[in-house]
Every structure is written in C-alpha cells, then in structure tokens.
Amino acid sequence: MPKRLSIAIDGPAGSGKSTVAKLVADRLGLTCVDSGAMYRGVAWRALQAGLSPESQPQAIGELAERLHMEFRRGEDNVARLFIDDEDASQAIRTPEVGKMSSVVSAIPEVRRHLSRRQREWGLNGGVVMEGRDIQTVVLPEADVKVFLTASDNERARRRLKDLEAQGVTTTLDEVLRDIQARDRRDSTRAVAPLSKAPDAIEICTDGMTIEDVVSTIVDLARTVEPE
Q1: Is residue 183 part of a domain?
Q2: 3-class secondary structure, 34
Q3: 201: in domain
C-alpha cells in the first residue's frame, strides 16, 4: 500500500493550529493528532499526582512513559483524547493544565517518550499532526510543513474567547502575558524549541478566517504527492 499524505503544522499558542488541523484532516480524510493534547495529558496526570516539574522531573518522565494515550473519533466526528481509557478531552483544557503543560513539555524524558509515539503514528502517513516541534523534530519528512503565526494581540484575543466559552473568568491582559511567557519558554527551551523548519510554509493568520487558512493548506496538500 502506498504511503498516505502526512501534514505537519506547528505554531505558537493561539495561532489556530488545533482548530485548523482538525478541519484540514476532516477535509482530506486524514487522522488528526494533537500533540499538545498529549503534553496536557501528562500535565493533568502530574497535577493529579501532586508531582512538581521543578523537583520531580524524573517522576513525571516515568509517568509519561506509563500513560496509555489514544485518540478516538466520536459520533460528532471529533477526535477525543483518552488517557488510560478515560476521556480527558475537557479536563486537559483548563488554564491550570495549560500552564503546567508548558513546563512539563520542557522535560527531556517527557518529550522523548511522547515524540516517539507521535513519530510512530506519523511515519505511515495519513495524518495531520500539529504541535510545536512536528515539522522540525517529530516528522521532518512530512509531505507538507506549515508554520502558523499570528500577532500577540490576535492570539490573546482568540484564547480569551475560548476561555470565556469554557466559563473561565480572566482578562485580555492576563491572557496576553500568559501567551508571551509561554512563547519565551517554548522558543528557548533546550530540547526541541519552537521554530520554523527551513522548508516550511509560513502563514500569518491575522485577518484570515479559519476557512481561509484551511483552504490554503488543503490546496497546498492537493499539489503534493506523498514521498
């Protein structure tokens, strides 16, 4: 059987990569793998276990190795993350878990375990995989590589809207500070920092609708033959 198309989408927090990746996958009949959800899953379990990434990084690395993670598509056609057979899709989306996941994702052992699983899923193709190091580390041989960006203010506005929809009370300034802090951590960490691959297509999503971005990537994918 010939290898199916693989698409890698990276970008900073709030750039829209999760929403876009899911829609691109649906449009092309591919499986969406949300790598960020996996790091959130480890962070969620670490918080439940009372583990500190600063003083107990080894324990969190061991936790990441033990966790069984699986993406399952529900009746609504949305892929949900199950951890040890428990649907964690909503639990991992809190601000607390988000902050913790940024710190947890910098632990080398956590990245090693999760990157290995992501690469195993991606090597056979048929995937749209999104995160922060997919086109540079996890799947550098992807057929299509995209780096999504947006201005700090635009990303903060989008994230605030998402949080308000979840019933979380916060302010635009607080969300903006959190995003900028996460950008610094993600781009300066020693292991697999956020960066654009030299051969990736950069798309700034300021002023673009979700449909504009999705159509751009789908059109690009349809011009590429899987290697």
Answers
A1: yes
A2: strand
A3: yes
Distance CA 145, CA 184 (A): 23
Task: Specify the CATH number for the domain of residue 37.
Answer: 3.40.50.300
* b/e per residue 109-122 (b: at least 16 CB within 10 A): bbbebbbebbeebb
Contacts of 77 (CB under 8 A, 6+ apart): 26
d(CA 100, CA 92): 10
The number of domains in the chain is 1
Q: Which residue has the tokens 């903060």?
A: 156
Q: Using DSSP, how many helices (H) and how many strands (E) does the chain show?
A: 8, 8
What averages of pLDDT result for each successive group of 10 residues across the chain (227 residues)? 79 90 92 90 97 96 95 71 93 91 91 92 88 92 95 93 87 94 85 89 94 96 77
Q: Distance between CA 225 and CA 217 in Å, rounded? A: 14
CA separation for the pair 19, 214 (Å, rounded): 9
CB 214 within 8 A of CB 24: yes
Q: Tell me if 81 sits within 8 A of 89, measured CB to CB.
A: yes
pLDDT value of position 106: 87
Query: Does residue 182 lie in a domain region?
Result: yes
Find where tokens 């199916």 sit.
4
Question: Is the four-CA dihedral 151, 138, 78, 21 of positive or negative sign?
Answer: positive
In a domain, 90, yes or no: yes
